[in-house]
Amino acid sequence: MHQGSSTSRANNEGAPLIALAIPSIGYGGAEIVNVALGREFLKRGFRVDFVTGWDEAGSKELIPKGARHVGLGVRRTRETLGPLMKYFRCERPDVMLASMWPFTTTCVMAHCMSKSPSKIAVVEHSTLSTQYEESGALVSFFLRKSLAISYRRAHARIVVSSSVADDLAKLSGIPRDRFEVIHNPMPMAMDAELQPDPLTIWRGWQGPRILTVGRLKKAKNHALLISAFKRLLARMDSRLLILGDGDLEMQTLSFAQAEGVADKVIFAGRSRNPLPYYLSADLFVMSSSREGFGNVIIEALSCGLPVVSTDCGGPADILENGRYGRLVPGNDAEALAQAMQDSLGAHHDKEALQRRAAEFSPDRIADRYLGLVFPLQDRNISV
């Protein structure tokens, strides 16, 4: 285990210490959520450690100023047990918030074996049954048994949506009411100073503009979106912009070519500043086959951008089952195309969408976490 930081510890050495434990620091949804929470905890005067197994290249800059980075120096979850035990014994955090199974299970084991007096809460961001459904019987057995044992030993079990709570209760056998649903905070930095020209973004196109944001990986189901987009083009000319990169980028491009729509699909890659893309689009679409929450939907709503999404888990919580956007069945390209067409032709109350997004502000979500794992009377700081 090595301790290091690209930032200096704030002068609050007597304040309670919150450890945010996550397999890696990178640009995924769970990682960005932890960064947003860490920033809010620092504002309230807590000390914050980011405890990670490994880190993506260039990602340490995400750690907010005033927090400390504690790298365990290993890439395999099973190798983190010893370093985590050492961290509990040496650093003595007041609270650990551990994210993402199986790392969560290892954190609970280390907490128990080190006989730490710290509180530990596990935080799950995904419907694990679908995430690991193709991993085989052995992984399924280990998933269920480890959840049943370790999650019972945690002081709190936090999930990002109702669908994740339902899934974990079924997998672990732990009663549903012992899971606390705390939605993700909106993590996007709204940088209005760096906005490229919309015509440049959309390559001169001024008609209907459809945006999706997310890594190009299997769970995001970009093939479904492209199939639906092809159907939409038969009814109205438009453009689809895919903001993100990933392992399936070339495969997705090839699929768009095979569908004959590649000239109307813009592959924009990943952007550190997605704001101008949201502001210049007419519709945001999520086509995922599973989604624990859906941070990008909140980002879209915060810009007053209407949303169409597959009913794949977390989006139903954000959209209140259709009140703030359209939900369609998964793997139904025709239903998705029709919802896209209807939404593009409808009037939307942008202020109502923005008010909904404001309900997921980082300060509100951080208060929910602190109220659960760090009651006010236990805090040795002025908040």
Keywords:
single chain, 383 residues, alpha/beta, Rossmann fold, 2 domains, 15 helices, 14 strands, globular
Number of folding domains?
Answer: 2
Helical percentage: 25-40%
Approximate strand percentage: 15-25%
Please give the number of β-strands: 14
Question: What is the SS-derived class?
Answer: alpha/beta
> Separation of termini?
32 Å
Compute the number of helices: 15
Shape: globular
CATH homologous superfamily annotation of the largest domain:
Glycogen Phosphorylase B
Radius of gyration: 21 Å
Query: What value does the average pLDDT take?
Result: 91
Strand order of the largest sheet: 1-4-3-2-5-6-7-8
Largest sheet: 8 strands, mixed
Supply the CATH class of the largest domain: Alpha Beta
SSE series: EEHEEHEHEHHEHEHEHEHEHEHEHEHHH
CATH topology of the largest domain: Rossmann fold
Low-confidence stretches: 5-11
Looking at the overall shape, the CATH architecture of the largest domain is 3-Layer(aba) Sandwich
Summarize, please.
It is built from 15 helices and 14 strands.
3D architecture notes:
There is one protein chain. The chain is an alpha/beta fold and 383 residues long. The protein has two domains: 2-185 and 361-378, Rossmann fold (3-Layer(aba) Sandwich), CATH 3.40.50.2000; 198-358, Rossmann fold (3-Layer(aba) Sandwich), CATH 3.40.50. The chain has 15 helices and 14 strands. It has helices at residues 29-43, 81-91, 103-113, 128-131, 137-153, 162-172, 198-201, 222-233, 249-258, 275-280, 295-302, 315-318, 333-344, 350-358, 362-373, and strands at 2-4, 17-25, 47-55, 68-71, 95-99, 119-124, 156-159, 180-181, 209-213, 239-243, 265-269, 283-286, 307-310, 326-328. The strands form two sheets. The chain has an eight-stranded mixed sheet, with helices on both faces. A six-stranded parallel sheet has the order 11-10-9-12-13-14, sandwiched between helices. Helix 3 (103-113) links the parallel strand 5 and strand 6 (119-124). Helix 3 (103-113) packs across helix 5. The longest helix has 17 residues, at 137-153. It is globular. The two termini are 32 Å apart. Mean pLDDT is 91; it is low at 5-11.
